[in-house]
Specification:
It comes from Salicibibacter halophilus. By secondary structure, the protein is α+β, with helices and mostly antiparallel strands. It has eight helices and 16 strands. The protein is elongated, with a radius of gyration of 24 Å.
Length: 273
Amino acid sequence: MDYFYRQLDLPLQHYFVHQLRLPRNVDFFQMDTLLLTPYFFLILEIKNLAGILTFDHEHQQVLREQGGQQEVFADPVLQAEQQAASLKAWLQAHFGSSPPIHAYAVMTNNSSILKNAAPHALHHQIIRPPALRPILQALFEKEKCHALEDKLNVYVEALKKAYRPARYCAMGKYDINRADLRNGVFCPKCSGVMKWRHGNWVCSRCEHVSRDAHRKALDDYALLISSHISTGECQAYLQLPGINTAQRILKKMNLTHSGGTKTRKYHLPGHRR
């Protein structure tokens, strides 16, 4: 796709952002490619599927026939539209409004054959890479009255700041069962179990004292289990005496969080790949 992006030769200030992953409530959404222009934003869902592809928007799916086998995939146009809706909501939450957002699915495999199961309004949003140029020309003409003026750089900086890389998940890769993992905080000196006493972690084996031994445990949680954690999950995982203690520990770490008081999730920095 990089070749086609270079060939666009856009006349105005613009930014291509790839694999942008943003927080949304307690989850995340990710866009393959986001093009930001002074008039509109464009989301591109990139697919490199081979074979005979039949797009069935009525049932939100793509059927692939290849080598006598049939497979089903999610509708990439609906995926792109969902990302557009999430991005619009994110922008409105942070800026009070959103520029026009358009979404397309780009099929990059030249050997694939594209078919439609039945007439549908979404068909025009399935394109090949060479169609990007005329589509952008039409969008610039259509949205030229929606100039962002000097706000484009503000949007770009906010998106860069909010970007959250996907976490490496060892449990999924190595098929580890959650029940096989030990809860608790372990001593950095002797690996003994540590207990929370009067604002410190105290090792039950060697009596080593630490104020922040929980940080390593929460790094492991982010690596093995999830990139976000509730106060209840924190209490259970760190084996704390009460939920208020878990809340104080999480607040003191100055973590970003989302959700209301009862549904709040704290986002753990943890390990990233």
